[in-house]
Amino acid sequence: MPSLDDSTRGRILFGGDYNPEQWPEEIWLEDVRLMKQAGVNSVTLGVFSWATLEPRPGAREFGWLDRLMDLMHANGIGVVLATPTASPPPWMGSRHPETLPRDEQGQTVWWGSRQQFCPSSPTYRAYAAAITEDLAARYAGHPALTMWHINNEYCTHCWCDGTARHFRSWLRTKHGTLDALNEAWGTAFWSQRYDAWEEIIPPRRAQYMRNPAHVLDFKRFTSDALMECYTAERDIVSRHSPHIPVTTNFMPLWSGQDAWRWAEREDVVSVDIYPDPKDPHGGQYNAMIGDMTRSQARGPWVLMEQAAGPVNWRGVNHPKPRGLNRLWSLQAVARGADAVCYFQWRQSRQGAEKFHSGMLSHAGEAGRTFQETSRVGAEIARLGAQVTGTRITADIAVLHDWNSWWADQQDGRLSTHLDYADVVRAWHRALWESGRTTDFAHPEHDLTRYRLVVVPHLYLLTDTAIDGLLSYVRGGGTLVCGFLTGVADEDDRVRAGGMDARLRELLGIGTVHEWWPLDAGGTVECEGFLGTLWSEEFEPAGGEVVAAYKGGELDGLPAVVRNGRAWYVSTLPEPDALRALLSRIADDAGTRPVLTGLPDGVEAVRRGELLFLLNHGRAAVTVQVPGSRPELLTGGQVSGSLTLERHGVAVLGEAVS
Ligand code: GAL
Ligand code: ZN
Fold first, then answer.
1. In which residue ranges of the chain is CATH 2.60.40.1180 found?
2. pLDDT at position 337 over 70
3. Which of 2, 184, 289, 434 is geometrically suited to a Cys-Cys bond with 245, CB 3.0 to 4.6 A?
4. Tens digit of pLDDT for each residue in 547-557?
5. With bands split at pLDDT 50, 70 and 90, how would you rate the model's confidence at 483?
6. Ligand 1 pocket, CB under 6 A
7. What's the CA gap between 288 and 428, in Å, rounded?
8. What confidence tens digit (pLDDT) does each residue in 620-654 have?
9. How far is the CA of 75 from the centre of ligand 2 (A)?
């Protein structure tokens, strides 16, 4: 199987989405000149080119792409070639309305933007396969081709009649019989029993709350239906070019795709990361997505898209202050990326994204954005061969599962303030701020290589996952579970006692009498810290109470319980408290920060033999580093200490004696 090494060949890929069809051909030459100036060695072509390639059904216009592929090759720039299937041309919806998605209310989602396709539509799939086939046949052997990029950020959902038929066949495969489905969905409730498969529809707009197990299966189905579209195109391009790796770009921590399952079907895992430049914890978000993507990839990964400056889809879109583009780009490399790419090369002058930044902004080559991006390109080139293919080892894993997220978001839950992704982020932040490197893992993965496993909040845990956690702790691992974990089984059926009995026994806690979610912004006092978001009413059963709730209804009841190497945290401690708690547990488990004594806001990551130091702060800081080491970005030597400027980065080689 091809891998990312086949694309990088010892260089970190640097470049971005290139949409030359938006520009007259004379601009292409100027693009190439500036790309070389900026250190670009990779462009992603064709992501939204369907209407240019196939202006009317069955037509093929490959001449322009031939010229571009040749131009890139002649200039030493590799091409990540996209199948254009994320944005069907208007003719498709106009001639084949059944390819257009319907929303939950049955309303058509029209053309005029992008991504207006029903993943279950055989017509859409046939057109997508045909253009993919011809594209692959034509360019499989082209020397510029380094990777296939299937579709773009698969994210459409559809509730149409065609989807209903497809959903039914998926359900038949999963449940076998209608009786089994009725049982799994608990359809005895509210007279929902199905008497024939044809009665089952996608969970459309209804009078009142919908059946959560039905909605959960629909989320699973939608992820799988999109994955079928992906694998169909992947198989076509792989048949033509078995030596070229295939990817599709994920949205980060996006609820629509079970990325664990998808990643298994990719040669290369790639992701698009857009932290808000205004977010004081944007660096942690970047780190978290890097950790998650590296874990899905089980090694180096691709940062397929980021912004050199502002995006244009937030309420207020802030540019990146000086140094931030460089910091976050090198941070991705520190956390395992072998490719640093942007959306997009040249900022558009027309269309919905004309205010979204590009590597080459409206300000042109003299503009700050281009100048800073070019510096990143030069530095990335310097790191190249010493970095690509190298690994990061972590002895802590954060468990994350889409099934649990989906079950968590349902109608009829106890608190709409509970945001799964925010809780995961809070726990990752605590570990990140404590200077420890973490992987992510699926709850059914083999966890034995980790000293510490944390479960920020997995409301749904399968029996297999619970078996795994039990044997992990029995085998010597340390486990910390956050609130509302292990409550529901695979079908979103609440387990007796409010949490799986074996898990309660492991954690040393008794029946959960009640869950006590907090009001927005509310806190609950616990011994030594404040809890947020959530609290729970239960008694210890064998576990030691590490901290109790203070005052209020839960006064004296346990907030944090420990049973040997298994911990339960029934609230979300405020950030400092969570960091202190997890640091203590992580120390006991034998994990260590990458470096100790770092100034606030400085991140240290070890990748292969290299030590990356990243200053997320806006003031210069001095960092003590043991020994005398080469610094790769400047080519200098560092002994004892070094100064990191605002948003500064250093990449240190091994200490020389
Ligand atoms: C991504 C998408 C790109 C571009 C970018 C803007 O979601 O893949 O095509 O729209 O966002 O931030
Ligand atoms: Zn549909």
1. 602-652
2. yes
3. 2
4. 999 999 999 99
5. very high
6. 152-153, 272, 274, 305, 311, 343, 353, 356
7. 7
8. 999 999 899 999 999 999 999 999 999 999 999 99
9. 43
All CATH 3.40.50.880 domain ranges in the chain, comma separated: 396-588
Tell me the CATH number for domain 602-652: 2.60.40.1180
Q: What stretches of 518-636 adopt beta strand conformation (E)? A: 523-526, 529-532, 534-540, 544-548, 558-563, 566-569, 572-573, 602-607, 610-615, 621-630
**Of 343, 346, 347, which is best to mutate to test ligand 1, by the most ligand atoms within 8 angstroms of its C-beta?**
343
The domain 396-588 is placed in CATH, from the list 3.30.70.2330, 2.40.50.140, 3.40.50.880, 3.50.30.10, at 3.40.50.880
Q: Which ligand is nearest to the CA of 311?
A: 1
β-strands 566-569, 478-482: how paired? parallel
Cis peptide bond N-terminal to 107, omega within 30:
no
Query: What are the start-end ranges of the E strands in 78-195?
Result: 78-82, 145-149
Residues 429/575, Cβ–Cβ less than 8 Å: yes
State the catalytic residue, choosing from 54, 153, 266, 603: 153
Distance, in Å, from the CA atom of 519 to the CA atom of 241, rounded to the nearest integer, reads 56
Whether domain 4-86+119-155+245-386 has CATH 3.20.20.80: yes
pLDDT digit string, tens, across residues 248-285: 999 999 999 999 999 999 999 999 999 999 999 999 99
Q: Whole-model pTM?
A: 0.98
